[in-house]
Amino acid sequence: MQDLADTARALVAPGKGILAADESTTTIKKRFDAIGVDNTEANRRAYREMLFRTPGIAKFISGVILYDETIRQKAADGTPLVKILRDQGILPGIKADIGAKPLAFSPNEVVTEGLDGLRERLAEYRELGAVFSKWRAVIAIGDGMPTPYCIEVNAHALGRYAALSQEQGIVPMVEPEVLMDGGHTIERCYEVELATLREVFSQLAAQRVQLEGILLKASMVLSGKDARNRASPDEVARYTVDCFRESVPAAVPGIVFLSGGQGDEEATVNLDAINRYAAKVRAPWELSFSYGRGLQAAPQKAWSGKAENVSAAQRAFFHRAKLTAAARVGQYTPEMERETVAV
Ligand code: 13P
């Protein structure tokens, strides 16, 4: 248990956070389509190798979540990608679920699958170097949604996954993502996030998960993407931290946010406001990031699949990671957006 707690704390060390690079092959296709890159194994490797070899990135990145293909992949020179991370002191993690599937008898909702054979898969991932893992449940807000049924089955699966992960000596990153799609108000998002987190922590307790050895990966409490008069960063900070104060036990070492389709600047500004507010109310957990799109949008655009763009893409990644890490301790300023970086 001590090892799990130490790993969890290392992942949320002050000034650092996590890169979510665990897009499934179908999800990375969407990102590659947007920059005109073919979704081949070689391109996925070249892209991720470029990110992981960014000089100095370990200053801001404590861990990287990998996809099944990536944890087994080697760089162009034959070095395993996991070794490239480890040699810089970056902790490798793994996506443990196999995706969200339609939920029986509730056609517009989904449940995350991947429990069958999970013990054996996690044991193999441990051998391959993973020290933490992630399971993403998806909760949508809409007419009559989410149903208590959807919240309960997803939270139950998160509990099953978290217990199996700890059993294998791997820190589970428990992720109930409340989607920002829709025109809902921030109050409605708060209500859904609160109900979800209460159910998740009740399932974790029932399934004997030790809270010091987990991380919570959470959504910010936001107005829906299509809402009119979307809430300001200060409101986002207050609703988000207050929601956690009502539902997340203090024993949890850290809460890391997903970016969830927010623009990269928006995700940074909100994280900064959250940390400033959390310091004021003396929130008990580290509040950090585990961004996918929020960290990768800029380097993807700069790279565009061309070897000659690797340094420009690494500079873009370094810059975004630096700003996000500053926001993670409440020290981001908009002027930092215009700084240039040499890598
Ligand atoms: P985004 O930050 O792009 O939402 O991805 C993070 C993630 O890992 C979702 O599971």
Would you report the number of β strands?
10
Helix content: 40-55%
**Rg:** 19 Å
Outline the biggest β-sheet.
Answer: 8 strands, parallel, barrel
CATH topology: TIM Barrel
What is the H-and-E element order? HEHHEHHEEEHEHEHEHEHEHH
Structural class by helix and strand composition: alpha/beta
The strands making up the biggest β-sheet line up spatially as 1-2-3-6-7-8-9-10
Ligands: 1,3-dihydroxyacetonephosphate
Top keywords for this entry?
343 residues, alpha/beta, TIM Barrel, 8-stranded parallel beta barrel, two-stranded antiparallel ribbon, 16% strand, globular, binds 1,3-dihydroxyacetonephosphate
Structure description:
- The protein has about 350 residues and is α/β, with parallel strands linked by helices.
- The chain has a single domain (about 1-340), classed as Aldolase class I (TIM Barrel, Alpha-Beta Barrel), CATH 3.20.20.70.
- The chain contains 12 helices and 10 strands.
- The strands form 2 sheets. It has an 8-stranded parallel barrel, surrounded by 6 helices. Strands 4-5 form a two-stranded antiparallel ribbon.
- Strand 7 (about 170-180), helix 8 (about 185-205) and strand 8 form a beta-alpha-beta unit.
- Helix 7 packs across helix 8 (about 185-205) and helix 11 (about 295-305) runs antiparallel to helix 12.
- The protein is globular.
- The N and C termini lie far apart (about 40 Å).
- The model has no long low-confidence stretch (mean pLDDT about 95).
- The structure holds 1,3-dihydroxyacetonephosphate.
